[in-house]
């Protein structure tokens, strides 16, 4: 009876008579060949200057960068796993040119060349623009949280830090005093030792105190920057492992994270600007986003869209100063209600009050004028009407919420005219059509990044995190460029060998 299975190849059991190229085992059109050509376009001169001709020669920076970016494109982020793939995966072996850098080499390069990776990202933006994959006609800005390389269990509140610092200082003083009392018994206690060794428990407590004090100083420096002149609340927390990470989250899920901000071009979802933010929300990130765009693309876009999280006075002012045509969803209170004012069930919102910039007043639906009663240093303003007028107003049950019978107040800031302008702008059908495109421009990009497996950083500290995020964004752009070449959308000069090179 004939067995209906293929037999083992002869060369499986014996050496082949003639040498062959092992990369013949890869498919002829494998993407690694194209990636290798794309990586050749990277300029690594800025990092090459850090190397010396003395000692053992290092791997070429372009090769290390190529290995890291290709690994990220395949969803491999651990330096140990990258080293393993360079030993076992033919496509990795091709990118590495049969070299296999130690995981320490890969890890140290990733940690020590943060600014270089940001330069690599900028090069991918310029390459995409040269290939006509990005035009900066419409840019969408958004942010997403990525977990920091730390844990909530490696953190402590400011109040707890102060308590532990005092307790450890007292314990160390007690240990030192105890040691001084034991000088007479030194010979018996230390025997063959010199007697000058630091006791193990004292060394441990001193090391612990140093960590406590370092974290406390980092927290104080952070709060002095964020809230100058204000006392630090005892509930404020900081992580020991990464003092620059911040508690972020929503829906009851909070963890130490960083806020990755990206600006995505509408043409082919190329990331044309990116930066790392330490803010849990996006209300202060337009100015750094515009600066990042200018640095990477060399110019600002014609128009830019962003979700409601960016609707703040600082962001609106940044757009106005940059003269960028912005489209931002307004807050619920800023929008005109869908139901008419005559509906007895509807509560009155801020949009029902008319602002007059000339007189700096609000007019309520009942005709009363609300004047400014206070203004803080940060520009926040409070407007209020007269209690007797509110008491006689037919809208009072749907307007005034004060249990003490006080008049209605409106809270805003010194940028109210910018808010009003954006509110009117976003009511137009043309503006709504432009803003509607936002969710198909930028949101899928974060989905693609996270679905590839990247959800948390491997390094610590904002600068190093910014470097790794640059690798992630550069990887995304390389994948988009490679796809455009492989599908025939573009045909660059260097893309002629998108298949296996012939010898």
Write the layout of secondary structure elements.
Layout: H1 31-39, H2 45-48, H3 61-73, H4 79-88, H5 90-95, H6 103-112, H7 114-130, E1 138-147, E2 155-157, H8 158-181, H9 186-190, H10 200-226, E3 237-239, E4 246-250, E5 253-265, E6 271-277, H11 286-297, E7 303-306, H12 313-322, E8 325-328, E9 354-356, E10 361-363, E11 369-375, E12 380-384, H13 387-392, H14 396-399, E13 409-413, H15 416-425, H16 429-436, H17 438-441, H18 443-451, H19 462-486
Parallel strand pairs: 1-7, 7-8
Antiparallel strand pairs: 1-5, 2-3, 4-5, 5-6, 9-10, 10-11, 11-12, 12-13
Report strand %: 5-15%
pLDDT average, as an integer? 85
Question: What's the main sheet like?
Answer: 6 strands, mixed
General form: globular
Structural class: alpha+beta
Number of domains: 4
Give the distance, in angstroms, between the N- and C-terminal Cα atoms: 45 Å
Poorly predicted runs of 5 or more residues: none
- Tell me the helix content: 40-55%
* Helical run tally: 19
For the secondary structure, the number of strands is 13
- In angstroms, what is the radius of gyration? 31 Å
């Amino acid at each position: 009876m004939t067995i209906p299975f293929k037999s083992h190849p002869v060369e499986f059991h014996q050496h082949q008579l003639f040498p062959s190229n092992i990369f013949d085992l890869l498919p002829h059109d494998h993407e690694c060949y194209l990636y290798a050509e794309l990586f050749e376009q990277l300029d690594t001169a800025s990092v090459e200057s850090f190397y010396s001709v003395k000692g053992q020669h290092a791997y070429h920076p372009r090769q290390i960068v190529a290995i890291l970016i290709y690994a990220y494109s395949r969803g491999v982020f651990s330096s140990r796993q990258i080293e393993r793939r360079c030993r076992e995966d033919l496509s990795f072996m091709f990118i590495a040119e049969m070299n296999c850098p130690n995981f320490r080499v890969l890890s140290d390069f990733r940690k020590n060349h943060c600014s270089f990776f940001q330069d690599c990202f900028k090069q991918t933006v310029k390459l995409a623009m040269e290939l006509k994959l990005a035009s900066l006609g419409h840019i969408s800005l958004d942010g997403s949280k990525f977990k920091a390389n730390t844990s909530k269990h490696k953190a402590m509140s400011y109040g707890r830090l102060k308590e532990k610092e005092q307790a450890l200082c007292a314990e160390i003083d007690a240990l030192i005093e105890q040691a001084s009392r034991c000088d007479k018994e030194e010979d018996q206690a230390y025997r063959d030792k010199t007697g000058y060794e630091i006791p193990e428990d004292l060394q441990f407590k001193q090391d612990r105190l140093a960590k406590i004090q370092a974290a406390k100083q980092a927290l104080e420096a952070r709060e002095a920057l964020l809230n100058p002149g204000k006392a630090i609340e005892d509930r404020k927390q900081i992580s020991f492992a990464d003092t620059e990470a911040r508690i972020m989250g929503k829906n009851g899920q909070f963890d130490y994270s960083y806020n990755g901000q990206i600006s995505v071009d509408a043409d082919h979802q190329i990331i044309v600007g990116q930066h790392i933010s330490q803010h849990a929300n996006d209300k202060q990130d337009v100015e750094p986003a515009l600066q990042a765009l200018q640095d990477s693309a060399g110019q600002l876009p014609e128009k830019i869209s962003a979700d409601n999280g960016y609707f703040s006075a600082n962001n609106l002012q940044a757009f106005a100063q940059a003269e960028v045509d912005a489209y931002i969803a307004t807050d619920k209170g800023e929008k005109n209600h869908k139901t008419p004012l005559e509906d007895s069930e509807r509560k009155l919102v801020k949009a029902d009050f008319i602002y007059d910039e000339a007189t700096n007043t609000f007019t309520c639906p009942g005709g009363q004028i609300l004047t400014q009663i206070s203004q803080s240093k940060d520009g926040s303003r409070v407007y209020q009407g007269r209690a007797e007028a509110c008491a006689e107003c037919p809208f009072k049950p749907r307007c005034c919420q004060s249990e003490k019978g006080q008049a209605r107040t409106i809270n805003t800031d010194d940028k109210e005219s910018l808010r009003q302008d954006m509110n009117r702008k976003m009511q137009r059908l043309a503006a709504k059509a432009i803003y509607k495109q936002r969710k198909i421009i930028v949101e899928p990009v974060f989905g693609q990044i996270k679905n590839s497996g990247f959800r948390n950083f491997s390094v610590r500290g904002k600068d190093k995190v910014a470097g790794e995020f640059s690798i992630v964004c550069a990887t995304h752009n390389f994948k988009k460029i490679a796809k455009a070449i492989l599908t025939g959308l573009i045909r660059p000069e260097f893309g002629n060998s998108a298949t296996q090179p012939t010898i």
